[in-house]
Design brief:
It contains 15 helices and seven strands. It is an alpha/beta fold. Strands 3-2-1-4-5-7-6 form a seven-stranded mixed β-sheet, sandwiched between helices. The longest helix has 16 residues. The protein starts with a helix and ends with a helix.
Amino acid sequence: MSEAIIDAVRSRYGAVAKSGLSSEQDGVRAVAEAFGYSQEELASIPAGANLGLSCGNPIALAGLREGETVVDLGSGGGLDVFLAASKVGPTGRAVGIDMTPEMIELARRNAAKFEGAATNVEFYQATIDELPLSDGTVDCVISNCVINLAPDKKAVFREVARALKPGGRLAVSDIALKRPLPPEVLDNVPAYVARIAGAITAEEYRQGLLEAGFGEVMIGDSGADLNAYAQVDGQAGCCLPAMDEIVKSETQSLPLANTGSSCGNGAGGELHGGLKDLLSRININDYAASVKVFAVKPASLIFRGSNPKMTSQLFYEKCICWRRRPSDQIPEIIANFYQL
């Protein structure tokens, strides 16, 4: 199943990279805005970097600072990489990782249009469970609705922990399950590619990160309406395939041939096509949520310039209340954390 999933993801998202979706289309822009990107942010980056595939805005959560190294898992057209590059400045590095060659090509074309990208933006083709990064070299890892696509999420969490510096942090927007999915969606390759069937619960997410070595983890519901995707007609969305394709695929190992769609262009539209049909049958908000995930790798000294008396024991004391905080207090927690 894992190889079939990887092949399906690579094929579908490769097609999206060639589809011509961008912020110049109202529907694509509306998806990004619905999940937390401002008009100013979208206007500051190449239009083709936004493909309408977000489920949140991890940049708003990451607390990036000048000079830091930030890595985006599943960087797509480069949306979050370019926004991160502006935050870390010319002395920092913004690195995108994507397993799809078409996405890497698109991101590099977009980089050529992005002012300053030549000095601090890089894109590499790799899977997110085998990162081409040295141990302890990254200040912050971000990701936007991609980790749920990984068949082995625990391997991803271990790789993130390995690559982060002591005291480094993870800031993620993703989809997490609230309750079991309906039979027609669960254990289905097209639904998995759509970032729904591969989602896990928030508690599974937390446990996976703790087991990987993170000292404390906070996960909160962003409150975003996943049905916002259904308001986008003929362009981008949560990228679920047509419902009839989901049902038919119960007897097929890798259904990729159907190119008919009312959404996007060619095979790229195939990825986005059937969302409105699915959401007319179920309220996806009843089953899943857009979540914010923030986790920190323990260290004796948390950040450069932090209080030299800061110890891991104090770090745990400061973090122990995180899981009880409302998700809208995450930025406040990050701000307080930097002031330690």
